[in-house]
Amino acid sequence: MRYDQFTPYDLVLLLQGLGVSLALFVSTTLIGLVIGTLWAVIRFYRVPVLAQMVAFLAELLKNSPVLVQLFLVFFGLPAFLKINVTPTEAAVITLSGNSAAFIYVIAVSAIESVGRDQIEAARVFGLTRWQILRRVIAPQAAAFAIGPLTGLLVNQLQVTSLISVIGVMDLTKVGNILNLRTLKPFVVWTVVGALYYLAAKLVAHAGARFEKRLRAHTAWKGL
Amino acid sequence: MKFDLSILAKHVPFLLEGAWLTFQTCLLAVLGSLILGTLVAAARTSASPQLNRLSAVYVDIFRNIPFIVQLFFFYFGLPEIGIYIDAFTTGVIAMSIAGGAFTSDVIRSGILAIDPGIIEAAQVSGLKKSTIFRKIVMPIALRASVRPLGSVFINLILTSSILSTITLNELTGSAKIVASQTFRPFEVYFVLLVAYAALTWFVSILIGMLHRYLNRNQAEGAV
């Protein structure tokens, strides 16, 4: 007997897939934010050797397909280092690294957007380097970076769909399973696409609201 | 395990075959997305509200749904409605449609950046609408958007690796075969990563040259 009809349970399966996609998206974004910002700070302090290495690594990660990075981590690393890597671990490592490379670029330009004169003024007032980074640069750079960051995150959400290729049960994988079982590609992929679309809109909306809050102190309040 | 690239030597011709297929898909997809993008950008900036809305919906949908979902939609869906085409054609069509959405956004911003005085002058001179678009608007808009168009096309090259999931043995697809034949996935995918990075780096240099050539008569610092 073949279950070639849609069942109510399929809805649960789709939502489960969406949950996996979103959970991986959020966790890899957070890890990527930490690593990417760290790399940008390394560049800000002009740490010798390390700064050049970071720039090269980010360039390599930005200019190669995520699918190939995924294969390198999932198939390559276990064979090379004789370790076990589960699909989820491979997905987290790859997506975090990829996000970090793009966030690094945004963070660097955000730090550079803060005027040199402000840093000089802060130095004259006797602030330490950490205080300058934390109190002068960070708040302004965050407000500058949030716009491009939202665009990037909408993109990264779509990149998560690639992890279905190495067998993570995300939304695309669930779509694949339903497609093979019911043989109704138009219905299945339209629903999966709509779910991704809604998630992307949600991210864009959240980004816009957050940007408004970060820019609240510079907004025109009227006389 | 030792890092040994020499085992790849006898698989190089096979990989180059894959690279040739990647080149063909990318070239056709770039052409397709350029044509589609120009048409959609024209519709997006036209005076007709219906065309405006229609093109905005197209761009919104194809930018916010992962490419792999779009690809599966076409690859599994088209045979359902009686259209039997091979993976290569499906891949080129899907890439053109997805790329067209990004391209149209770039060209649209190029069109919107044109000084309205230029278009008014053309209208006053009695030129037809189509002549204004072909001879005045498009040359200026395309010339100004060579760089952003270039980054869209580089992204398209990276996206082409996803076509390996629909049984098309382009560069990534043939690397997958080589990896399973040699049992050296780390070396194979590492070389692949570097190859893609080198390829996109080379393309970005070409785009820089094209940009300088097309804008050679512009004032220093302008555009």
Walk me through the structure:
- The complex is a heterodimer of chains A (223) and B (223).
- Chain A is an all-alpha fold.
- Chain A has one domain (9-218): MetI-like (MetI-like fold), CATH 1.10.3720.10.
- In chain A, 78% of the residues lie in helices and 0% in strands.
- Chain A has helices at residues 8-44, 50-62, 66-81, 87-113, 116-124, 129-159, 171-182, 185-214.
- In chain A, helix 7 packs antiparallel against helix 8 (185-214).
- The radius of gyration of chain A is 21 Å and the shape is flat.
- The termini of chain A are far apart.
- The model of chain A has no long low-confidence stretch (mean pLDDT 91).
- Chain B is built from nine helices and no strands.
- In chain B, helix 1 packs across helix 4, helix 5 runs antiparallel to helix 6 (129-144) and helix 7 (146-159) runs antiparallel to helix 9.
- Helix content of chain B is 76%, strand content 0%.
- Chain B has one domain (6-214): MetI-like (MetI-like fold, Orthogonal Bundle).
- The radius of gyration of chain B is 21 Å and the shape is globular.
- Chain B is an all-alpha fold and 223 residues long.
- The chains are: A mainly alpha (223), B mainly alpha (223).
Quickly name the level 1 CATH class of chain A: Mainly Alpha
Give the proportion of residues in helices of chain B: over 70%
Number of helices of chain B: 9
Q: Give the beta-strand count of chain B.
A: 0
The overall pLDDT of chain B, averaged over residues, is 91
Percent of sequence in beta strands of chain B = under 5%
| SSE series of chain B | HHHHHHHHH
Please count the helical segments of chain A.
Answer: 8
Which overall shape of chain A is indicated by the principal axes computed on the Cα atoms? flat
In CATH, the homologous superfamily of chain A goes by the name MetI-like
CATH level 1 name of chain B: Mainly Alpha
Q: What Rg of chain B do the Cα atoms give? A: 21 Å
Q: Report the span from N to C terminus of chain B.
A: 52 Å
CATH architecture of chain B: Orthogonal Bundle
Please state the average pLDDT score of chain A: 91
Question: If interface size is counted as residues with C-beta under 8 Å from the partner's C-beta, which chains form the largest one?
Answer: A-B, 41 and 41 residues
Identify the overall geometry of chain B. Answer: globular
Residue fraction in strands of chain A: under 5%
